[in-house]
Design a protein that fits this description.
Distance between the termini: 6 Å
Strand order of the largest sheet: 3-4-5-2-1-6-7-8-9
CATH superfamily of the largest domain: Glycogen Phosphorylase B
Radius of gyration: 28 Å
Largest sheet: 9 strands, mixed
CATH topology of the largest domain: Rossmann fold
Shape: globular
CATH class of the largest domain: Alpha Beta
Number of domains: 3
Number of strands: 17
Structural class: alpha/beta
Number of helices: 22
CATH architecture of the largest domain: 3-Layer(aba) Sandwich
């Protein structure tokens, strides 16, 4: 009998296409989880990702002198093979070790790699897109690295490898075929077929049990990706996904129920005092006020102290992300507010990514002229202040002098002309950019009449680009923008997890999610009074009409809250954020790795 000794070391490799390569949500998963993983594994934790020089420039610090460690020796051995491999630290919280693979160095072997995938695993890669070729090259370099590392270290070290998504995993079935001594875990964050079919087929979840995965993969032209995903999932010692919602897809599309569900978290940084996150909300709300003033007040004005900012964000998937439902609910909310003669205003921001030519010149012009008005007012303010001080000091009585006498005719004329130039009778545009093609959000705004008419209580700002601090319209990064809003609205129809509502929770912003999102499903499982805590879950299993009315009623109730009630709700939301700290959710990953070890390193009886 082979006996496992307690002196054996352990090392965990976390493998993802989005390590040091921000593409989508998995980057957030890995990056936010790193501090908790480093705390658990210390020096025995290493991330593996692709090397793209431009993207790695700001996040990667190379280790210049070769290390006489198993990782260092494996890197050197791959370099001797003619492969370009970078080794260093990922410059994020926790500073984990990181190995990056330059896929260009293995491209000459691509035909051989594809042949092996077909010969050994039946993966057809005929006429695939270039991105799939890139991921195959990356996965092969990961396979070589792990195989060589195991050759050097497996006698003394238990090796764990956690693969995220198909883009990192076409080499996983070969690792198992060759019986490389590594405990493997695979996580699908969203099945390929689920994402495609849900956005194109009505009643996706009702029809889910009846889909033929291979037929659907061929229909959508993603047979290679779907096959890689399925084989990686079935080859891993432990197959996982991120929610019970996606687990149902795995059973149909990937061949079995997952062994475990691993919910996603964030690296939560709590404030020591409640007023701190409230102050941040006020500060960034004022910045949004500046944008709203420039965007709307050119045409007409409304009371900013009675204005609420709602937003939705994410990749552009009109049905999957619930943008269709949100717009229908907003139209109903607008009708309810007008009928109730409310003096509140709701501004709804749609933040997503769509192809565009440029920012709308009229939007930029309005911002520029508003800036000029602000400069003129500052000059007048200074002039009045200086004149008032001198007049007050020289005065023999306490009466306030006529302030108009302190303003030069030049500044009066300039202010008058600038304001006249700025004002317009045009409706404020509901989209900030010139799209290359009109899309469903634009069409839905026109269909529902949400065109920013003065009498409307609900206004729309569609911003078809992600928000960054360099953005000329807001001057905020995404996190600051979220803090400045009052509510996030994410009634997704297809959402394996859903980071956007979670990002609201950790910033103390009430949020709407759905029971078909992983996050919403998880909330419903762990919390009974979630709505009292500022998390609203839309029932997306009911009809579209009923779901739209439910969402409209939730938004209407929120609008009718007073300031104290909204502050209390922000406090309650922020108070539950610790539930989603990776230091608490890491235990799910620990369980997955322990289970993979039991399967991979099980005792052999002679």
């Amino acid at each position: 009998m082979e006996i496992q000794t307690k002196t054996r070391q352990s090392i965990l490799f976390e493998v993802a296409w989005e390590v040091c390569n921000q593409v989508g949500g998995i980057y957030t998963v890995i990056r936010s989880k790193v501090p908790a993983m480093v705390e658990q594994w210390d020096e025995n934790y290493c991330c593996l990702g692709p090397y793209f020089p431009q993207r790695a420039m700001t996040e990667f610090e190379p280790i210049t002198s070769p290390e006489n460690t198993p990782i260092g020796r494996t890197v050197e051995k791959m370099r001797e093979m003619g492969l370009v491999v970078e080794y260093g630290h990922w410059l994020i919280t926790g500073r984990p070790k990181i190995v990056l693979f330059d896929i260009r160095s293995i491209v000459p072997q691509l035909d051989r790699i594809k042949y092996d995938l077909w010969e050994n695993h039946g993966i057809s890669t005929v006429n695939i897109e270039d991105l799939v070729n890139q991921t195959i090259c990356f996965s092969e370099m990961v396979r070589i690295f792990l195989t060589e590392f195991a050759e050097i270290s497996s006698k003394k070290t238990d090796i764990y490898a956690h693969f995220h998504e198909w883009m990192a995993s076409s080499g996983l079935p070969e690792l198992r075929r060759q019986n490389v001594r590594i405990a493997t875990t695979f996580t699908t964050h969203a099945t390929m077929l689920g994402r495609y079919i849900a956005s194109n087929v009505t009643d996706f979840y009702q029809k889910l049990p009846h889909f033929d995965w291979q037929k659907e993969a061929r229909h959508y032209g993603i047979e290679a990706q779907a096959t890689i995903e399925r084989l990686a999932y079935l080859s891993a010692h432990v197959a996982t996904t991120v929610s019970d919602v996606t687990a149902r897809e795995c059973a149909v599309f990937l061949g079995k129920e997952p062994d475990l569900v691993l919910p996603n978290g964030l690296n939560i940084q709590r404030f020591s005092a409640v007023h701190e996150f409230q102050n941040l909300h006020m500060r960034y709300k004022d910045r949004i006020h500046q944008f709203i003033t420039g965007h709307f007040f050119q045409s007409y004005s409304f009371n900013l102290d009675k204005t609420l900012y709602f937003f939705t964000s994410g990749r552009y998937e009109f049905v999957n992300k619930g943008y269709d439902l949100t717009l229908e609910a907003l139209a109903r909310l607008n009708w309810k507010m007008v009928q109730a003669k409310m003096d509140m205003t709701v501004v709804m921001f749609f933040i997503t990514k769509q192809p565009y030519h440029s920012i709308n010149p009229e939007v930029l012009q309005s911002r520029a002229v508003l800036g000029e008005i602000q400069e003129t007012c500052s000059a007048i303010e200074k002039q009045v202040g200086e004149g008032l001080f001198k007049a007050s000091a020289a005065s023999n009585h306490s009466n306030l002098p006529d302030l108009n006498q302190f303003v030069d005719e030049y500044w009066r004329l300039r202010l008058r002309r600038t304001v006249q130039t700025w004002k317009t009778k045009r409706l404020p545009p509901f989209i900030t950019h010139d799209l290359k093609e009109e899309d469903d959000i634009v069409r839905a705004c026109r269909r529902t009449g949400l065109m920013n008419h003065e009498q409307d209580r609900v206004k729309i700002v569609y911003h078809p680009d992600f928000i960054a601090s360099t953005n000329p319209l807001f001057g905020l990064d995404y996190g600051q923008f979220v803090r400045g809003c009052h509510m996030g609205v994410f009634p997704s129809y297809y959402e394996p997890w859903g980071y956007t509502p979670l990002e609201c929770v950790v910033r103390g912003i009430p949020t709407v999610t759905s029971d078909l999102s992983g996050f919403g499903d998880f909330i419903m499982q762990i919390m009974k009074d979630y709505e009292n805590r500022g998390i609203y879950v839309i029932n997306r299993k009911q009809s579209f009409e009923l779901a739209a009315e439910q969402l409209a009623n939730i938004l209407f109730r929120f609008v009718r809250m007073n300031l104290r009630e909204r502050i209390q709700q922000r406090n309650k939301v922020e108070n539950i954020s610790d539930v989603f700290d990776w230091n608490n959710l890491r235990s799910y990953y620990d369980t997955a790795h322990d289970l993979s070890a039991k399967k991979a390193f099980k005792t052999k009886v002679s």
